[in-house]
Each structure stands twice: as C-alpha cells, then as structure tokens.
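User:
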Amino acid sequence: MSKHLIGLTLIDAPYSALNNAGTEASQATENIVTVKKLQKRRDAYPYVSGQAWRNWWRTTLEQEFDDWKNSPIEREKKIAFTAADPVTYDDDDVFGYMRAQSEMQGKKKVNLTVTRLSPLKCSPLISIEPQTPTNDFGVMARQKKGDPVPYEHQFYSCVLQGIFSLDLAAVGAFSHINKTGYLNIAESYVPKIQDAGGSQADEKSPWVLPKETRLRRCQQTLEVLPILSGGAKLTSHLTDVTPKLIILSVLDGGNHPFMNLIVEENGVGKLSLLALRQVIDDYADRFCDAIYIGRRNGFMDELEGALCGLGEDTNLPCEIVYDSPNKVIAQLSQKLEIHIGDSP
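Assistant: Predicted structure:
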C-alpha cells in the first residue's frame, strides 16, 4: 500500500455564499441567485463543490509560492485541457489532467490521449447541520434618475466539512503503460523527465522525479491550507475559508477513517470524540505518524478540555499532537520527508 496524507477540515461560514447554483425565477424580483445546497429528506444542507474547493487550492498555491507553476488552459472547439506537462507545471502533477488528442501519422490516425488521476482527492464542503439559506433583497440604483433594478441572492450561516487525501507515492511519479488510466505520459515525453533528473527502477515501473521536487510539491499542497482564499460573493460576504478545526495524519492505504467523525445530533453538528477514539484504536497499525489536531480559539471552544485530554493520554496507541491549525500543519509538513521515498 502507498502512504496517504489524509485530513478532515471544518470551515466556519457565518454569513456566506461561497458557491452559487445560478439564477432562479422569483415572483418578487424576477431573478434570484441561489446557493448550492443538497436535500436530505426535508432538510437543506448548503455545500461548496469539490471543483470549487480545488480551484481555491490551485489558485492560492500559485499566488503564495513563487516556485509553484500552474499549467495554462488551452481550448480546442468545445473542449479545454491543460498542457499535460507535469515536469514543468506543479498542478498538472498534483491535480491531474486529461488531454485527448490524436494526429495523423502518414495515413494512420494515432491516439495521443494522456490522462493522470489526481493524487489530491477531496470531497465537497458540506454543512454539518441543516440550514435554510436566507434571501437577501437588494437593488441596483446608483443613479438619481431611472427605475431601480431589484434582485435577490441567498446566503447562509453554517460550518462546512470536507475531507481530502494526497497520495504521497503518486506525486512526481508517472506511468507510460499503454492502458486506460495508466498512460500519464507519451513515450516522447520521457526525455523531459530524464532532463529533470527523473529515473525509473525498471521498464515496468513509473518514472519518478527527484525527491526534493516531490517533497516540495507535497509540502506546499499542505502548507497552503492556513492561507487558503476564495469563494463567491466575497465583496459583501467576506469569508475566511482556512481551517478552523483540522485533523491530519499519514495513513498506509487509500481509505479515509476520518470521514465520519462529524455527527449530527438533534440538528446540531459536532465532533464525535467517541468516533475519533474508535478510529485511533481500529487503525493504530495503519497510522504512519501521529494524529495532528488543530483548533482555532473562538471556534468550538467546548472541545478544548477533551482535545487537551487526548493529547495527554499516554494510553492511546497513537501519539496525538494538539495545537493551532497553523502549527500542526507546519509540524506535519516537516515530517513528510520521512514518508516520501527516494527516487529509484
């Protein structure tokens, strides 16, 4: 099994409209911009799509790190694709790509499609409890003359939960096996990997970039979380989308045992310490590092005593590191070097 950096994050969204579904007809104003929400029985839960969250992630990485490069987007008729160049562009490596192309070689049409499954996977950000969005009425009326133009938009107050996983062995490793899902690069791309210091254990193994490149990309993908920014309606609903509570570790395997730690009781979402203790006990032999828990003071302060107790409990099968979100992210980032293997 390969090692995965796994995380659960809670984002406080007290007056937000971070991801909109578009315009709906309204008898009052003829148009209303609605937020994205899903239905569970009769209840509505606002959410941010996984695509939107990944876009915040990708954009902030390029803004905050001078050596991080995002791939340009190319368009051809009705399709769009990146450069599919994971040596030059960090996001092509970490966020994956698909570039469907073909060309005529003599009289034969040759398929040149390459795909890369994203090593970084994430869920949507979903409210941890039911929330009915509020309709806010406004008008566009800057001029003294003329009729004002009315409009409505929705916003909500909730806590959003998301999980993510980064396959540490997949970052900087590229297969060129001619099989669906495994053809990350064309044969003609191999010299570029070699020029970048990449190597291959044997002809059936993937090409792997040098450890320092892979480590930098993994660290920056994690380290950007405390400075993450993005979302819709920020001019009038400014929301800090950095983690207010985060639980992190490195796991041997691709499952995500932190997925069900947030529970809903009588319409209220909360962290289940009973579920967390069970996960620690059940997966103790799978955790490759400590479990890092970060909480921002002022958010879920009722957890302070219990989380401090976990950090001081010497009977647990795993070490618990409890501090602020920024500090636990920085600590785990420094430990990633021991979890990323050397090039072959």
